[in-house]
């Protein structure tokens, strides 16, 4: 594009791929960074690299962490007999905001979606099954959607082989709505009012 240095176009094109950032916002960010001190920009660049270098997945629960195991798995005061199964780490963060859940988590890392070529083997399901020793209840806190329901159904069938109670969140989370966008009070009520999935 005439009149725009190539490096600006490059930054713009990289930022415009970020979720929720369009071309215009990407350009605004590029110009904003250009006007900052070099040191400030280096801080941004380093923080981005740290995201990749310092964050890993907890080998127990698959949640993002800088430590192994993660803080939640390591917390002795949390109830390890209740496991809350979620799609991704953002859901853990949302549920932690409610402060009402004191059990532990298991992050699947996605949902079963045959159309996208995602099957059970692509998710952290095997590592969930090996954790069930001390577990009395598994809460399926999975967003209601076609993929979410498929995944919940699959998991509840797998879990039948184990002596655990399987529950799901009470409705109240809008269909197709995301745990991430549900307010804390609604989420807390959804956990407290959880419903047992019968073991037929
Ligand atoms: Zn963990």
The tally of strands reads 7
Domain module count: 2
Enter the CATH topology name of the largest domain. Answer: Dna Topoisomerase Vi A Subunit, Chain: A, domain 2
Provide the β-strand percentage band: 5-15%
Query: Which hetero ligands occur in this complex?
Result: zinc ion
Q: Give the oligomeric state.
A: single chain
User: What summary fits the major beta sheet?
Assistant: 5 strands, mixed
Our count of helices gives 8
Q: How confident overall, as mean pLDDT?
A: 91
Helix content: 40-55%
Distance between the termini: 63 Å
Give me the CATH architecture of the largest domain, please. Answer: 3-Layer(aba) Sandwich
Spatial sequence of strands, sheet with the most strands: 4-3-5-6-7
CATH class of the largest domain: Alpha Beta
Task: Specify the overall morphology.
Answer: elongated
C-alpha Rg (nearest Å): 20 Å
SSE-based structural type: alpha/beta
Poorly predicted regions: none
């Amino acid at each position: 594009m005439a009149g725009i240095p190539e490096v600006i176009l490059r930054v713009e094109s990289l930022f415009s791929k970020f979720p929720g950032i369009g071309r215009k916002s990407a350009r605004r960010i590029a110009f904003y960074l250009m006007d900052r001190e070099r040191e400030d920009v280096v801080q941004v660049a380093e923080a981005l690299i740290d995201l990749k270098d310092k964050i890993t997945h907890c080998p127990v629960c698959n949640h993002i962490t800088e430590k192994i195991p993660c803080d939640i798995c390591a917390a002795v005061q949390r109830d390890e007999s209740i496991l809350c199964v979620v799609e991704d780490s953002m859901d853990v963060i949302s549920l932690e905001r409610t402060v009402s859940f004191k059990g532990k988590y298991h992050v699947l890392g996605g949902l079963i979606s045959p159309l996208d070529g995602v099957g059970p083997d692509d998710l952290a399901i095997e590592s969930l099954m090996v954790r069930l020793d001390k577990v009395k209840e598994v809460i399926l806190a999975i967003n209601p959607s076609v993929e979410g329901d498929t995944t919940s159904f699959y998991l509840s069938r797998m879990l039948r082989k184990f002596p655990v109670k399987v529950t799901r969140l009470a409705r109240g989370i809008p269909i197709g709505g995301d745990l991430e966008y549900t307010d804390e009070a609604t989420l807390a009520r959804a956990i407290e009012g959880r419903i047992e999935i019968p073991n037929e």
